């Protein structure tokens, strides 16, 4: 799903401060994704990786995704959607105010909702602060809410060859 507005210039991006700029496509938290995350993090708690036991003992009726797996999707969402024609590289610079508000049962779908809270020019680029909500399909309560800080760095020609600021 594309950005919700034209961001072909820095002025157009500035005009979006305070607005929702992205609602991503749904991503399924399938068990293989949860298992791969468990392998990468060496976090093999039964609530995440043992469907038989989780069906018997979990209050959720089965396995749930790791909270940080849900949060790790932010990098995917940024890479897939939050790039600008006047920038060449973006990096996840940090997180503030992270709250895991609802577990994601394996097999459920999640998506990201991004509101551009703040935009600051930094040496060579921009620092943007987003209010991010990771929603769970069919549930009122989100999986996660956070404030995410991302840096985008200008293309070398920006500013010297007509990149409208």
Describe this structure in words.
- The structure is a single chain.
- The protein is of the alpha+beta class and 165 residues long.
- Strands 1, 2, 3, 4, 5 and 6 form a 6-stranded antiparallel beta sheet that branches.
- It contains 5 helices and 6 strands, in the order H-E-E-H-H-H-H-E-E-E-E.
- The chain starts with 9 loop residues before the first helix and ends in an 11-residue tail after the last strand.
- It has helices spanning 10-14, 31-41, 46-49, 51-57, 67-81; strands at residues 20-23, 27-28, 87-100, 109-122, 125-136, 144-154.
- It has a domain at 10-28 and 66-154: Thiol Ester Dehydrase, Chain A, CATH 3.10.129.10.
- The radius of gyration is 18 Å and the shape is elongated.
Distance between the termini: 26 Å
CATH architectural group of the domain at 10-28 and 66-154:
Roll
Helix-strand string? HEEHHHHEEEE
Please compute the radius of gyration using only Cα atoms: 18 Å
Dominant shape: elongated
- What's the number of helices? 5
Helix content: 25-40%
Global mean pLDDT: 89
State the low-pLDDT regions, or none: 160-165
CATH structural fold name of the domain at 10-28 and 66-154: Thiol Ester Dehydrase, Chain A
Helix- and strand-based class?
Answer: alpha+beta
Largest sheet, in brief, is: 6 strands, antiparallel
Beta-sheet strand percentage?
25-35%
Number of strands: 6
Q: What is the CATH superfamily label of the domain at 10-28 and 66-154?
A: Hotdog Thioesterase
CATH class of the domain at 10-28 and 66-154, anyone? Alpha Beta
């Amino acid at each position: 799903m594309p950005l919700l507005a034209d961001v072909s210039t820095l002025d157009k991006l500035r005009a979006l401060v305070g607005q929702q700029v992205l609602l991503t496509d749904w991503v399924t938290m399938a068990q293989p994704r949860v298992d791969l995350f468990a392998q990468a993090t060496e976090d093999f708690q039964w609530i995440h990786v043992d469907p038989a036991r989780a069906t018997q003992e979990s209050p959720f009726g089965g396995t749930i995704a790791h909270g940080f797996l849900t949060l790790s999707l932010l990098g995917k969402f940024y890479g897939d959607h939050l790039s600008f024609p006047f920038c060449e590289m973006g990096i996840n610079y940090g997180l503030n105010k992270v709250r895991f508000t609802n577990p994601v049962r394996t097999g459920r779908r999640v998506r990201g909702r991004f509101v551009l809270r703040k935009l600051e020019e930094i040496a060579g680029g921009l620092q943007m602060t987003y209010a991010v909500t990771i929603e769970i399909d069919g549930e009122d309560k989100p999986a996660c809410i956070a404030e995410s800080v991302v840096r985008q760095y200008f293309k070398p020609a920006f500013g010297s060859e007509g990149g409208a600021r």
